[in-house]
Specification:
This protein is mainly α and 307 residues long. It has a domain of 167 residues. It is built from 17 helices and 2 strands. Strands 1-2 form a two-stranded antiparallel ribbon. Strand 1 and strand 2 form a beta hairpin. The relative contact order is 0.15.
């Protein structure tokens, strides 16, 4: 019958998803280097809220398996950005079901519920804000129109996570005012002892599991076998020896939050962060897409091209 798809061919093989190739989000979130900065920054801002920190500590395997937890979070986020609308909405429903069980008490400060719209808004805001801040610092400064477009593109995701329109900032100006208010002296976001404990895991992760995750992601069995020795060497490298690689992310934090985390930020840290940032900016355009861009983004490109 005319117009009927071939057997086994999906009906929505060129469906662009919630964002699509013309969006600022689709363009930015494919950059692996950007996510290296935005991910840790967003996590540190999230757990700086006492209720989020309590939820992570009580209901997450973060302490025992930080790389596995971070990898799962990244896969989920990229599925929402680069999957079809059906895949993205299914992932949002899955996360919502998980969050339904995340409830408990904040020591000395009442209760928390991961489905609380105000907490969901803060987590959502850290992802958007960290992407914009890191893009400005590591890729190229965004124009005001690009920043506004990126924020507006995020609104449907915020709504899908249960944030009502009367709480969700309607535009970039309102969003920036909200972030400033949350981080201000009267706002609720200030790292405490629990946040500082969790931050130590974020900023000093073991290297071996990370290398093994990268090796397992390789499509070639022979290539994986050849790099097993590298993973064994990485297992013996203490995490403080490579923690300087996360200094650029520390530099992207608001100064007051960085100080509250009691993180060193002297001439050495600033110089190393600047050197790494300059190196990433110089090398990023020269890298092949298979290294520079996230595999989920490349798969989405193929999906759109093959339709």
């Amino acid at each position: 019958m005319a117009g009927r798809p071939a057997a086994g061919r999906p009906l929505n093989d060129r469906e662009p998803g919630l964002f699509g190739p013309g969006s600022v989000t689709w363009r930015l979130d494919r950059e692996a280097f950007l996510l290296l900065g935005a991910g840790p920054r967003a996590l540190l801002l999230q757990i700086a809220h006492p209720a989020v920190a309590a939820g992570v500590a009580d209901h997450s395997s973060f302490r025992e398996d930080p790389w596995g937890r971070l990898a799962a979070t990244l896969r989920s986020y990229l599925r929402i950005v680069y999957g079809t609308s059906r895949q993205a909405k299914a992932e949002i429903r899955r996360l919502d079901a998980l969050h339904a069980r995340v409830r408990g008490t904040v020591p000395g400060d009442g209760r928390y519920d991961a489905r609380d719209p105000e907490l969901a808004l803060w987590v959502h805001a850290t992802l958007v804000d960290s992407t914009l801040v890191t893009a400005d610092a590591w890729l190229a400064p965004l124009t005001r129109d690009e920043r506004a477009a990126a924020y507006l593109e995020s609104l449907p995701v915020g709504r899908a996570f249960g944030i009502p329109d009367d709480l969700l900032p309607p535009d970039l100006d309102a969003f920036e005012a909200y972030v400033a208010r949350m981080l201000g002296p009267a706002g609720p976001v200030l790292p405490g002892p629990l946040a500082r404990e969790l931050a130590d895991t974020i900023l000093h992760p073991p290297l071996g599991p990370a290398v093994r995750m990268l090796i397992e992601a390789l499509p070639d069995d022979d290539g994986r076998a050849a790099l097993v020795g590298l993973a064994n060497v990485a297992e013996r490298i203490p995490s403080p020896a490579i923690s300087w690689l996360l200094w650029p992310s520390i530099g992207l934090l608001p100064a007051a939050i960085r100080d509250a985390y009691e993180l060193r930020w002297g001439p050495l840290e600033r110089a190393v962060a600047a050197w790494l940032g300059a190196g990433w900016r110089a090398w990023n355009p020269r890298l092949p897409a298979s290294i520079r861009w996230m595999p989920q983004a490349l798969a989405a490109d193929r999906r759109m091209a093959a339709g």
